[in-house]
Specification:
globular; 465 residues
Length: 465
């Protein structure tokens, strides 16, 4: 027992809990949130618009580029419901109740996705595909409550000074689980009989998603502000009067749009055009990204607590902008573009996600944080992810119909060039105006990351926002 206790005391999260002086109930709840996040990310490996499992199922149902874009865009469009859900959460303080009803149902729906090719008739033509789109819509609408519950929940439990390191440690742990689970899923996709492959895979995906919600059922509910009845118009006006938050929304919306022009279609391009197997895709994409995340997330978390979110966002954003360009060198059967894009991409896009999450919390007031997060998710998901995904799918189908980009620079590579150029512009022009929460600079951050010179170990005090 002493050995186990000693190991636990050295574990990074337990060290953070001790540093913050958290009571036992809060420590247990944060650990349960971590466990829920692990299950939720395993759920996301199977269940989502752009997963390898969904690519295979969509191909079986003969989905075109635009239909595939719709599948990717539906979960983002459903984020619009986060606004009324956030008002409900602010007014009632019943996060656990909503997670264990709507959230649980949204995950349980995925249990039947694999049955669509078996039980849905093919007459009229396209009925199975539209059934898939309909079920995706139902699940996405119900799952809109999850984000406005768990993220403010975590914020109320975790003190501000440890959030960056907690999130980076969580991302490293999640990456390790993603690595093993992703390879297992890919092997099942490649080896299971075609007639029951997707039944088994989506049963697994739905089950781990349900476990995610169950974890929150055992968490301590804590609210940093009293329940408050808000009107949607007044709430939206309040959010858009918060200038630092608005700048963050604009930047992240543009980032999501440019990223999703080609991002959701790269995996499908790898399978359909480059001829990679599901196992190759999982090893050279999910596994490679997981390894990269484990290697760098601890350093990004410390850098963010030391030099500030904007510094981390700028350094990571510039580097992440160009990583899709590895696909410009792709040829049939080649795995190196996939490996390099996902390994080096994850090293830097993970820092952008970490910084964006932390900036949402630091730039939003405690008493209305669910509403701020809901507005952020709605705008960035609809105007960023959804429009970006649909714009990319429309361009691909338009170029194909017009007979454009048929040589070595095919339509996918043309889209990659457009996306990389626009993303780099966003990183260079929209990240610098963001408000930093530390006194550190990107130059000091780079010097620290690459050990070009010694830096002071002192962490600058947080500015008042």
């Amino acid at each position: 027992m002493r050995k186990i206790s000693g190991w636990m005391q050295r574990f990074p999260l337990f060290q953070l809990y001790a540093e913050a002086g958290l009571p036992q109930a809060i420590r247990r709840s944060l650990t349960l949130i971590l466990l829920g996040n692990i299950f939720g990310n395993l759920h996301g490996i199977i269940c989502g618009g752009g997963t390898t499992a969904m690519i295979g199922l969509a191909n079986q149902l003969q989905a075109g580029d635009l239909a595939f874009g719709i599948l990717n865009g539906i979960p983002q469009a459903a984020a619009l419901l986060q606004i009324p859900f956030s008002l409900l959460v602010n007014r009632t303080h019943h996060r656990k109740k909503y997670m264990l009803t709507l959230g649980l149902f949204s995950r349980a729906v995925w249990l039947v996705f694999g049955l669509i090719p078996v039980i849905v008739p093919t007459d009229p033509a396209g009925l199975p595909l539209w059934t898939l789109i309909f079920l995706m819509g139902i699940s996405s609408c119900c799952s809109a409550v999850i984000n406005v519950c768990w993220f403010p929940w975590f914020s109320d439990l975790a003190p501000d000074r440890i959030r960056g390191r907690w999130l980076s440690t969580r991302d490293m742990i999640v990456a390790v689980f993603n690595l093993g689970f992703g390879i297992l899923v890919a092997r099942l996709l490649d080896t299971l009989p075609v007639e029951n492959r997707y039944i088994i895979i989506f049963l697994i995906g739905g089950t781990v998603g349900i476990l995610d919600m169950i974890c929150f059922g055992f968490c301590e509910e804590k609210y940093s502000a009293p329940a408050k009845r808000l009107r949607i118009g007044g709430m939206i006006r309040e959010v858009f009067r918060n200038r630092p938050f608005v700048r963050l929304i604009v930047m992240w919306t543009a980032w999501c749009f440019t990223s999703n022009l080609c991002g959701p279609y790269l995996a499908r391009y790898s399978v359909n055009d480059m001829g990679l197997t599901f196992t190759q895709m999982m090893v050279f994409s999910t596994a490679a990204a997981s390894i990269a995340t484990v290697l760098v997330m601890g350093r990004w978390g410390r850098a963010m607590d030391r030099f500030g979110c904007r510094s981390v966002m700028l350094v990571g954003g510039i580097a992440a902008s160009v990583t899709d360009a590895f696909y410009l060198f792709s040829v049939p059967g080649s795995v190196w573009p996939v490996l390099l894009r996902n390994f080096f991409g994850a090293m830097f896009w993970s820092s952008c996600n970490l910084a964006a999450n932390s900036m949402q919390l630091s730039a939003s007031p405690d008493e209305t944080r669910p509403s701020y997060i809901a507005v952020f998710a709605c705008v960035t998901s609809l105007a960023g992810v959804t429009l970006g995904t649909l714009a990319g799918g429309s361009l691909l189908e338009w170029w194909e119909g017009a007979g454009m980009f048929t040589g070595s620079l095919d339509r996918m590579k043309a889209l990659i060039l457009l996306s990389v150029t626009l993303r780099l512009g966003v990183a260079l022009f929209l990240i610098p105006p963001l408000q930093n929460d530390r006194d550190g600079t990107p130059g000091q951050l780079l010097a620290s990351l690459f050990r070009l010179k010694k830096e002071s170990a002192r962490i600058p005090a947080r500015k008042d926002l």
